Amino acid sequence: GAGVSQTPSNKVTEKGKYVELRCDPISGHTALYWYRQSLGQGPEFLIYFQGTGAADDSGLPNDRFFAVRPEGSVSTLKIQRTERGDSAVYLCASSLVTGETQYFGPGTRLLVL
Amino acid sequence: AQSVSQHNHHVILSEAASLELGCNYSYGGTVNLFWYVQYPGQHLQLLLKYFSGDPLVKGIKGFEAEFIKSKFSFNLRKPSVQWSDTAEYFCAVTRGSGGYQKVTFGIGTKLQVIP
To answer: Contact at 8 Å (CB) between B110 and B25?
Structure first.
């Protein structure tokens, strides 16, 4: 596709449920990043993939958060036992190679009730 | 840890006014600097970036930013704003040692341009 796509665009769930957020990067981009943007804040780094491997997951807030990129393209961010504090916009970005400009998707707005 | 400060959280200007948004970062080494913009209902887009060379960087839509190493600053400027510049602007920084570096964003500045 022409840009980074993310699905769903909005997700409403109940506290304690499990959610999956999908990111489809720009074709050919080897680096993929997940960020979380809370209301009134800038994007906060969560995890970075180079190819299939998570090269830096130091931004994941706790072990309820996990992400995969099994074939080096699409990535899924998984959140277990969601909490109200997880409510935010989850952004995905990709870059052609590591260190180059990141291109962002539209985000998934997650609301945990 | 590096941090980014954007001092103006909400700016209101009339059309044709000049714009300057402040950005300061805390890391003392080599840095790469970015300004991203998010128009209402749209996703984050790169406005301009500085990796090396001329510290005065020209971006899209008439924006420019100046890297002043001694002040740890990368302020965004535009001589004459338009209503269509209404958006949220984010300054971001990575360490400039090559390869992967985590991007740290500022809190953002909401710009409202009044026709």
So the answer is: no
